[in-house]
Amino acid sequence: MKIKKAVFPVAGLGTRFLPATKASPKEMLPLIDKPLVQYVVEEAVAAGIEQVLFVTGRGKRAIEDHFDIAFELESILLEKGKDNEFKEVRDIAEMVSIFYIRQKQAMGLGHAILCAREFVGTEPFAVLLGDDIIDGERPCLRQLLDVYTEHRGSVLALEQVPMENISAYGCVQADAISDRIYKVNNLVEKPKREDAPSDLAIIGRYVLTPEIFPILERQEPGKGGEIQLTDAILSLSGKEPVYGCRFEGTRYDCGDKLGFLKATVDMALKRKEIGKGLEEYLRIRLGCPKG
């Protein structure tokens, strides 16, 4: 079965970027000239996703506006002969079918996914978190979907991280099936370094089977008093196989200020129109010779 639906939980408050996120969603922070959330939606579309559900909260209206048709802006662009800009703006509204639902209480990622139950129905589906921008030749989600096609089970995106940072992530204990594919045996949410089963961290991309929903419905609150998706996936792994994919590509944690700045610099350096100028500026600032 082709996976056509993706869920984007975007109800978080973005407190790590205050005061910038006081009145604007963190997902709309600009990474060069596009908001973070657009990069992730483009990844989903490039992977073959046809329908997207945003699980939103209060103060997220800007996301809806961004992916809507902007008639006044478009008419001004056409009047001024800015056809390229018109096409770029219109393409955002037409890239994929988008739906919205409110998560009325901040009860955790697992609860946000549960809010998507009616949208998903009985199909397998993808989950993408907007904090993680993943730059690679093949979309990260496409890599996970290929694993699902081969093994027919839920798939988690995995990345090896330094053990001193493992407590910031959910992580897995898993057996390698091939070079980058694993059979997941255990999951732990934000363990202490000494309790972590491995250095394989769960990153914000998932392919899940609909069997996750009855588990989430019965799930007791975990760490932080929230419904933890990691706990539900652990329960799911006792009923059906769960796999991990150590994806190819560079991941930027754009929920972190330093990660956001790294993404901005690296991706700007790749842009033809600004890359050389930025590189020259950085060399001057850092006192580095050319060559």
User: Helicity, in percent?
Assistant: 25-40%
Cα end-to-end separation:
51 Å
Please tell me the overall pLDDT: 92
Kindly provide the radius of gyration, computed on alpha-carbon positions and rounded to a whole number of angstroms. Answer: 20 Å
The total of beta strands comes to 13
By DSSP (H or I, 4+ residues per run), the number of helices equals 11
Bin the strand percentage: 15-25%
Shape, please? globular
Pattern of helices and strands: EEEHEHHHEHHEEHEEEEHHEEHH
- Strand order, main sheet: write it out: 5-4-1-6-11-8-12-10-9
- Content-based structural category: alpha/beta
The major β-sheet equals:
9 strands, mixed
Oligomer: single chain
Q: Stretches where pLDDT falls below 50 for ≥5 residues?
A: none
Overview of the structural elements:
This protein is of the alpha/beta class and 291 residues long. It is 35% helix and 24% strand. It has eleven helices and 13 strands. The strands form three sheets. The chain has a nine-stranded mixed sheet with strand order 5-4-1-6-11-8-12-10-9. Strands 2-3 form a two-stranded antiparallel sheet. Helix 3 (71-79) packs antiparallel against helix 4 (83-94). It is globular and about 60 Å long. The model has no long low-confidence stretch (mean pLDDT 92).
